[in-house]
Input
Amino acid sequence: MRSGRTDPPSPGKDVPAGQGNRPVRRAVFLKDVFLCALGAYGGPEAHMSVFLDQMVVRRAYLGEADLIELIALCSILPGPTSTQTLVAIGHKVGGPWLAALAMLVWALPALAVMTILSFLYQFLAAWNISFGVLRYLGPMAVGFILVAAYRIGRKVVTDALTMLLFLFGAVTTYFIRAPWIFPAVLLFGGAASVLLAREPDMWNRVRLSPPWIYLVLFALFALGGLFVEHLTDSRSVLLFESFYRYGYLVFGGGQVVVPVMHSDLVQHWKFMTDQEFLTGYGLVQGLPGPMFSFAAYAGGMAARGGSALQQVFGAVAGGVGIFLPGLLLIYFVYPVWEGLRQIRAVRISLRGINAVAGGLIAVSAVILMRASGFQPDGLAATALSVGLLAWGKIPAPLIVLFALCAGIVL
Output
């Protein structure tokens, strides 16, 4: 696999790409990324079908086997899988500058909308509109999480070990909700998978020449954020450090980050209520693009209490913080992917990490269902959203719209 050019092309110039070495204009590629963003609903698994159709079948920027390899690479890394996949395609097509632009085109529209939606509760209060119009969004969002837990669990539980790790992740994080428990159980799952594999030559030596500057920046932001956060009481700094940490602790996309965010922002810091959290998660289901854009809503909600500008800063801190570590990691790893994928222990550890992550999602569905209450109409909304998602004939945005309309009418 080629890593593409590393020198940034001039604006509007052709860049080498994909199948047959035909030149591709930057503007054309970014337009295709935007089309992917408009059609991508439902998380990484659904997004990949959009990438396959637009990037492989229609435009031939890369082959189907290349796309599958990139998906595998981004699944190994923490961070937003869909975003990292698109960034890697941009890197392959036109180098790091095009990769960065692709991420902006892909993520910025959804981040902007979720930033605006973080003012939703103030808007309703200013216009004397009852918060009851949002009451079914929370139970509906629980339905989305239940379906995600089932689908991911079915995918990651493949044998007795992964079943045990799945249950370990669920039970441990149900009883211990401290922020440190999530990285601990994920690391345990990866280590257990490697230690119990009993396969020869798992740590086979490979030759790598990684661009270390991106790993240095990744570490500087991680350690520097912790240091600065202890020196100041700035809410924006605290939020950036928190969301940056979510970005490098989470494997597998938006559904996996929900239990980590909920434990930290709702239960630990009490920046918002369960209903407010679930409302944002329900709203993001109706938007195309990356589910990590939920961070802009959560960051904005956590920064309430000051000026509107401070709330926008909170949303920006959340959005930038959660996407930045994944971007730096894919910039570090992609150029050495050919060698990295030959290390068997990396692939083996992913089985355990994914199994534990599935347990985290399953228990988050239970906790959030309990938090949203067990009123009959709420349970009916959850059951209906599960049924519609399982049926697969109704798009996610229409389910969100139906929940909003039901809250207004009833």
Q: What stands out?
A: Residues 194 and 348 are 6 Å apart (CA to CA).
